[in-house]
Amino acid sequence: MGYLKSFLGAVLIGALPLAALHAAVLEAVPATPVGSATQAMLLGAVQAQARVVAVGDHGVVLLSDDQGRSYRQARAVPLSTPLTAVSFADADHGWAVGQWGAILASVDGGETWSIQRLSSDQDRPLFAVHFFDTQHGVAVGLWSLVLTTDDGGATWSERTLPPPPGQRRADLNLMSLFTDGHGALYASAERGQVLRSDDRGHSWRYLDTGYEGSLWSGAVLADGGLLLGGQRGTLLLGSPDGRSWRRIALKSKSSITAIQASAGQVIAVGLDGLVVSSHDGGRTFEERRNADGLSLTAVLAREHDSPLLFSRRGPVPMPGP
User: What does pTM read for this prediction?
Assistant: First the structure.
């Protein structure tokens, strides 16, 4: 399996890239509008107020203005390389990240995008992005790569992480970003590590869960507790201070790829169509599997409606009335 295919399959088969790929020439080829865009693998999604924005393979950006009932492709995306995550600060201002350390920005609700950052000499992909407001944002990725901006992405600064406890260097893949809504930002990582920042990504400290595998996703629950998902059906519930953890017992051994919490509703999704849900803020969980068994890659939890699910074959159709 080539590097590109390994990268696209990282959230599906657990094969995280272990080496960066150097290329002689990197050309910024725009994404092409195609009729099959809604069948592309989608790796990130966000609710930009009334609009849903999802990003994925081949630079595909999908927009929905009817709460996920239908999608259309964005008008202009300057890259056709994979996009892994997306964040919006308001209805208009959004950022997407992906392969080649790319950071794209939109000021019109995701209709058109421009390149803010692109690394042409080394493919060190970014896996997650979060903006606190239109000026302050964080992006993370391969080998402890952390980038921050305090000017809306006009400039990005690389932050040097300390080594994890007992290690000589910081070389973890940082897989997701999530926040408590009160200033604390978390990054899930490999080797059971979670990082916390209280200054918008400028400095970080480690929280050790006691788990040894990769943690692909996380969310902060309504009571401040931390919920993390990872390989082989791993679902960890932590105290708000991150000092104590317990494993939520699941029947499934399918890896969990994304978690979202909205008020009392918590949704985790994973490989093989796995859906784990809680309607009491994370005190109890139910698990089911979609009938088609299609691996799920992103989710948007909605307080008063069914969650929106995204997969390696595009948005999952919403259930009928």
Answer: 0.91
Instruction: Report yes or no: 301 and 266 within 8 Å, Cβ to Cβ.
Output: yes
How far is Cα 282 from Cα 222, in angstroms, rounded to an integer? 9
Check pLDDT > 70 for residue 8.
Answer: no
**Average confidence (pLDDT) over 57-76:** 96
Give 178's strand partners.
Answer: 186
Contact between residue 142 and residue 20 where contact means Cβ atoms under 8 Å apart: yes
Q: Rounded distance, CA 286 to CA 300, Å?
A: 17
Q: What's the 3-state SS for 243-285?
A: CCEEECCCCCCCCEEEEEEECCEEEEEEHHHEEEEECCCCCCC
- What tokens does 295 get? 């691996």
Q: Which two tokens stand for residue 107?
A: 């000021």
Residue 92, classed as helix, strand or coil, is coil
Asked if residue 117 lies in contact with residue 98, where contact means CB atoms within 8 angstroms, the answer is no
Q: Edge to edge, what strands does the sheet with 51-56 contain?
A: 42-48, 51-56, 61-64, 72-73
**Which residues make beta-bridge pairs with 138?**
130, 148
Share the mean pLDDT of the chain. Answer: 89
Position 50, amino acid: A
The answer to whether 88 and 53 have CB atoms below 8 angstroms apart is: yes
Kindly give, in sequence order, each residue whose CB lies less than 8 Å from that of residue 202, ignoring residues fewer than 6 positions away: 148, 159
d(CA 72, CA 38): 8
**What does the pLDDT look like over 178-233, one tens digit per residue?**
999 899 999 999 999 999 999 999 999 999 899 999 999 999 999 999 999 999 99
* Beta-bridge mates of residue 200: none
Q: What is the pLDDT of residues 25-57, one digit of tens each?
A: 467 888 888 888 999 999 999 999 999 999 999
The residues that bridge with 129 in the sheet, in sequence order, are: 139
